[in-house]
Amino acid sequence: MDNQKNIYKKLLPIVLLLLSTQIVFAQKLIRYDLYVKDTLVNFAGKEKRAIAVNGQIPMPTLVFTEGDTAEIYVHNLLKEETSLHWHGLFLPNKEDGVPNLTQMSIKPNTTHVYKFAIIQNGTHWYHSHSGLQEQIGMYGNFVMLKRQDDKTFRKGIDDLPTLPIVLSEWTNVKPENIHRMLHNANDYPALKKNSVQSYGEAIKAGHFKTKLKNEWKRMLAMDVSDVYYEKILMNGKPSADLTNIDGKELKAGDKVRLRISNGGASSYFWLTYAGGKITVVANDGNDVEPVEVDRLIIAVSETYDIIVTIPTENTAFEFLATTEDRTNSASLYIGNGIKQLKSPQPRLKYFEGMKMMNDMMKMNGDLDDMGMNMSLNQMDMNVVMYPEISGESKPKQSDDDPNRYNANALADIVTLNYAMLKSPSHTSLPKDAPVKELKFELTGNMNRYVWSLDNKVVSETDKILIKKGENVRIILYNGSMMRHPMHLHGHDFRLLNGQGANAPLKNVVDIMPMETDTLEFNANVEGDWFFHCHILYHMMSGMGRVFSYENQEPNPLIPNPKLAQRKLYADDRKLHFMAENDFATNGNDGMAMLQNTRWSMGTEWRLGYNDMHGYETETHLGRYIGKMQWLMPFIGFDWRYRKMGIDEQEENLFGQVNKKDNRTAVSLGFMYTLPMLVNFQAEVYHDGIVRLSLMREDIPISKRIRAGFMVNTDKEFMVDLRYILNKNMGIRTHYDSDMGFGVGLTLNY
To answer: What is the DSSP string of 562-608?
Structure first.
């Protein structure tokens, strides 16, 4: 009996220890169930399809504490496949949530479980990585709190009242249609944003020569964003009030920490505050030394933690998020009482930006750095467009002034740049590790909306092999006319910004045109990791690479790697369709085209209302060549019918004759974009007949009026004027050498 008691006494502490251990571990397992389902929303005056998770947009904010284990059940109730990517998180590769790379897509009416340890802290977010689902609701905050005993815990920062915010945009246009229109250079976004830079507006602004030079260098009009959005949302609302946090009413002197994620598909946001300075305390989930600024721009997919102070009683101060193109905004009013508004961002000076762009680009399409060493967002070429900095009366900065594009040197407004970010601790990589250096040029073509690295999209490249343990250094040069937020999955990188051992840790780097930035990371987590531009439509166009660890174990979630790769490559190989038809009084003419990154297949037709006017179709299959894609060799097929008299014949400028009513011919040729965006086409048919053509279809006369012309060596010509009614309809008048004068309704898709 005594022996039994002794045994029980010895076992009791062990049992209690085991029980307490089980309780502790049970507390660390945090489970979320996410139900992904179609819904209808009305954010901007029309009921449209969206995707809600647990019945809400944005998706629920997921909160963990470092040391927890996340167990997230994704129940796909859609009629299509989906996925979730945990942006900025350190986790096993198979949990990263990139379909066809780290897992296969989650099938409709199935459940997928993501399970991983929380081994970091900070403000992050999560979103769908399937198609364009992110654009229509699949984004949300992902917050990981510090442990109370964390040595990096900062009093007065980490213990402040906190509000997670996810910024986003909404458009009533289907994202698939947006993507298609971007590839087809549709005017709709510029019209909606009132940013069309026509010849009429150029003359009015005294910038006719600027516009002429712009088109001489084969450039489209200046723009700072790709898409027009009807609404900007802050936590799913265009405007909201923050009067209390956790039941405690906010009052004068209170500080509030805002955890801000840019969940937008393509919008950058200016962040400003009516209550004074903004204090930046973290970026991309990593602490930085506090820095005070008047404003900052948050790139697509970036996160910033900022602190704002309520300066006075009985006032709610506006925290304003404005799109980079300054067409729309969302507001949060912080505090209680009368609303104190922040001055809106003034309209951009587009023709000044166009002039700057002209100076930047050479005739061959390369950028000219004008002798400047640009990096870290310190030199912002767009300052020429900012009235709040450039003003209307300020003298032009000298071309020799090294600060002529430095916002902080030109104005009293303090704008955050990457050089200001400093980690509170050393971030140096292992000194004895081998170094692998990679260089990439960010390349793009606005005319055809092709975005790439080194003029290659994802499907045109192999995975980039890296070795576990080595330090990977990436040097990025932006040779395109757009800024790009480049995101690395699964790792933080050091952004070399002049802070030495305290270089900030990030997972997104925003790179301006002509800028060169260097980042480095230690390769410490095996797998296939995506590196891509986070503007959704740039990524889907192929702007990215895959880093793959050598000699890694196969991913059990990718049972058929070849099939997965084909599906991954399908994104940027996707064909985009466009069509247009003019129903005119003198005939019917139109075109249809399928195109992707390199290939184009187009058919044009002219259908007369009688035999004398005839019928004609031309089909071309071509491949675009070169970084700027100004040259397209093609093969063609031409069929035409026109009733000709007994003695009637068609003779071209070279004396070559066609006597037939019916003509069927195969051809070889090329199309080349000349200065002024005029297309020169040369074609040789199988019967030896040669045809040369000059044409342009979209000369911007005014905001809604476009002109066009065509002339060829068959002695045919056409001139036209078109008035744009909306994105799918216009009124057109034209004169055709074969069909005469006509007026009609043009429909386009």
So the answer is: HHHHHHHHHHHH--EEEEEEEEETTEEEEEEEEE-SSEEEEEEEEE-
For residues 115 and 73, is the Cβ–Cβ distance under 8 A?
Answer: no
The C-alpha atoms of residue 83 and residue 566 are separated, in whole angstroms, by 18
The whole-angstrom separation of Cα 179 and Cα 609 is 36
Q: State pLDDT tens for residues 44-84.
A: 999 999 999 999 999 999 999 999 999 999 999 999 999 99
In which order are the strands placed within the sheet that holds 493-495? 450-453, 435-445, 471-478, 516-522, 493-495, 505-506
The identity of residue 518, as a single letter, is T
Two tokens, residue 189: 């976004």
pLDDT tens digits, 637-690: 999 887 766 556 788 888 898 777 788 999 999 999 999 999 999 999 999 999
Cis omega (within 30 of 0) for bond into 58? yes
Task: Find all residues with CB under 8 Å of 195, minimum gap 6, and list them.
Answer: 221, 223, 325, 327, 348, 350
Domains in the chain and their CATH numbers? Answer: 2-148 (2.60.40.420), 233-340 (2.60.40.420), 435-546 (2.60.40.420), 576-748 (2.40.160)
Structure tokens at 55: 């019945």
pTM of this structure: 0.92
For residues 700 and 724, the answer to whether their CB atoms sit within 8 Å is: no
Rounded Cα distance between 46 and 172, Å, is 7
Q: What share of the chain is helix, strand, coil (3-state, %, to 5)?
A: 15, 45, 40
Angle between the N-to-C axes of helices 350-360 and 208-216, in degrees from 0 to 180, rounded to the nearest 10 = 40
Alpha-carbon span 496 to 275, nearest angstrom: 33
